[in-house]
């Protein structure tokens, strides 16, 4: 009965506050900016409302068990709220995240942490690992807050799972209160969203849920399987974040720079609507939460191993299915489209290249080409034709070489390393990408674009791309 009371109270308070905050945000122009990811301005401050509800109810009910979480999250919510209005440097945000998590660990008795029951590693090793994991979860949840309802659905399901595990403890009342606030938020966040969580909301949810998962009661005594519970609860954002980091490093971008290739973006690219993509994501998260609950309650070794095997297999199958469908759609037009670069950038004259004095700009079109291929052969044709025109107009005195089906190397005596020329070229290339709606990020250099020269410390471009200095495949742009 008390669970329903707390849930309905925060739900009603949310329905009362969110419309007022939406009007307030519009009046003060506290809106999300339009960019390559967001096509319309939407009020922020959704997370601030959720945080206010939790602080108000917790203060009224004198829930001392969660006081430290709310106190330590206050600076984090504050700096994130400022970041929603005026962009704050990633280093400063990271500093606040580490400081707040470290402060909570300092204030929390070691015996209350799950890890305290497994003295395998000393504290000076365990605590940095906890800080690293919690900060990772905070940023991972921030990453999945890129589609209407996604972060809300994830947080609600994890919240419900934790509430079940904390049954009979004050934390369960706190979690049902949070669940009510999230349900109210999701009503206003459903497509098309009337309000966003903002960084302050995703950060608060990641911070709160991650820390609570580290304080779970031991209902079956000290068991090694408790260590898997937090990892499984946050499996979806963890996997998405790891894929994002790998993808950004691969494309020479910053791991902190947002992009449009997260799992929810990929679901939309293969044909799912926003609601359909949310449904798939919700099913994966629900599956992970059920597995976490099984690890929490099951005692038999065979049962636990079976559940974990099925869970890992299921998550891998979902990922493989998504990539299979995406690649299948691409392959339908790949046979026709791979020859287009050669068609529009056909070689007509061989020229000599001095390997001891050259400047190069490498364009790897694969990150963009894969997305364009999903739109059909006509889109591919227009994209490659437009790219060839871009090369001709911005590299008039240069020579270019096509490597494979997706890479174009432009060589010149002109020093592209000169800062002014380099920045101008980057700016123009970003314009080209925006026209074709294939922006991947807003990192300093677009994905797939690399500057090199005979002075570079990396592998010689001429050698790397198999360009002979005697019988050249490099040709002058017509």
- DSSP helical segment count: 18
Mean pLDDT: 83
Structural class: mainly alpha
Number of domains: 2
Number of strand segments: 5
Task: Note the main sheet.
Answer: 5 strands, antiparallel
The radius of gyration computed from the alpha-carbon positions, rounded to a whole number of angstroms, is 26 Å
Overall spatial form: elongated
Distance between the termini: 78 Å
Instruction: Give the ordered list of helices and strands.
Output: HHHHHHHHHHHHHHEHHEEHEHE
Can you describe this structure?
- Helix content is 62%, strand content 5%.
- It has 478 residues and is mostly helical.
- It folds into two domains: 2-326, no CATH class; 340-476, Alpha-Beta Plaits (2-Layer Sandwich).
- It has a five-stranded antiparallel beta sheet, with no helix packed on it.
- Strand 2 (399-403) and strand 3 (407-412) form a beta hairpin.
- Mean pLDDT is 83; it is low at 470-478.
Quick structural summary:
The protein has 478 residues and is mainly alpha-helical. The chain has 18 helices and 5 strands.
Which key features would you list for this structure?
single chain, 478 residues, mainly alpha, Alpha-Beta Plaits, 2 domains, five-stranded antiparallel beta sheet, 5 strands, 62% helix, disordered C terminus
């Amino acid at each position: 009965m008390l669970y329903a009371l707390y849930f309905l109270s925060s739900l009603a308070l949310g329905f009362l506050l969110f419309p007022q905050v939406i009007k307030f945000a519009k009046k003060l122009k506290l809106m999300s900016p339009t960019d390559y990811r967001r096509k319309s301005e939407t009020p922020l401050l959704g997370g601030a409302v959720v945080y206010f509800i939790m602080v108000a109810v917790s203060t009224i009910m004198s829930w001392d068990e969660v006081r430290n979480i709310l106190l330590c999250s206050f600076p984090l919510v504050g700096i994130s709220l400022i970041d929603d209005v005026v962009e704050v440097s990633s280093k400063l945000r990271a500093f606040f995240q580490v400081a707040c998590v470290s402060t909570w660990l300092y204030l929390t008795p070691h015996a209350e942490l799950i890890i305290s029951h497994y003295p395998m590693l000393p504290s000076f090793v365990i605590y940095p690992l906890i800080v690293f994991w919690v900060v990772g979860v905070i940023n991972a949840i921030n990453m999945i807050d890129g589609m209407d309802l996604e972060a809300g659905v994830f947080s609600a399901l994890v919240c419900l799972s934790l509430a079940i595990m904390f049954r009979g403890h004050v934390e369960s009342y706190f979690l049902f209160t949070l669940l009510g606030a999230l349900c109210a938020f999701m009503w206003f966040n459903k497509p098309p969203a009337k309000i966003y969580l903002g960084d302050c909301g995703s950060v608060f949810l990641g911070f709160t849920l991650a820390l609570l998962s580290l304080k779970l009661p031991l209902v079956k005594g000290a068991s090694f399987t408790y260590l898997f519970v937090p990892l499984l609860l946050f499996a979806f954002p963890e996997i998405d974040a790891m894929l994002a980091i790998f993808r950004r490093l691969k494309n020479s971008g910053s791991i902190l720079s947002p992009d449009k290739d997260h799992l929810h973006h990929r679901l939309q690219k293969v044909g799912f609507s926003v609601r359909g993509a949310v449904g798939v994501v919700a099913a994966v998260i629900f599956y992970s939460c059920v597995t976490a609950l099984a690890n929490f309650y099951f005692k038999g070794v065979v049962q636990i191993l079976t559940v974990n095997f099925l869970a890992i297999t299921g998550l891998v199958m979902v990922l493989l299915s998504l990539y299979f469908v995406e690649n299948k759609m691409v392959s339908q037009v790949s046979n026709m489209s791979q020859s287009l670069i050669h068609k529009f950038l056909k070689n007509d004259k061989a020229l000599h290249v001095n390997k001891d004095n050259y400047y190069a700009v490498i364009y790897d079109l694969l990150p963009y080409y894969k997305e364009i291929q999903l739109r059909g052969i006509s889109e591919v044709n227009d994209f490659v034709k437009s790219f060839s025109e871009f090369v001709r107009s911005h590299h008039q005195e240069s020579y270019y070489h096509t490597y494979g089906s997706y890479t174009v190397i432009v060589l010149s005596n002109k020093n592209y390393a000169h800062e002014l020329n380099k920045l101008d070229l980057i700016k123009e290339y970003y314009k080209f990408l925006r026209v074709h709606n294939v922006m991947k990020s807003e990192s300093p250099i677009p994905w797939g674009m690399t500057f090199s020269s005979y002075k570079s410390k990396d592998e010689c471009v001429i050698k790397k791309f198999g360009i002979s200095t005697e019988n050249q495949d490099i040709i002058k742009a017509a």
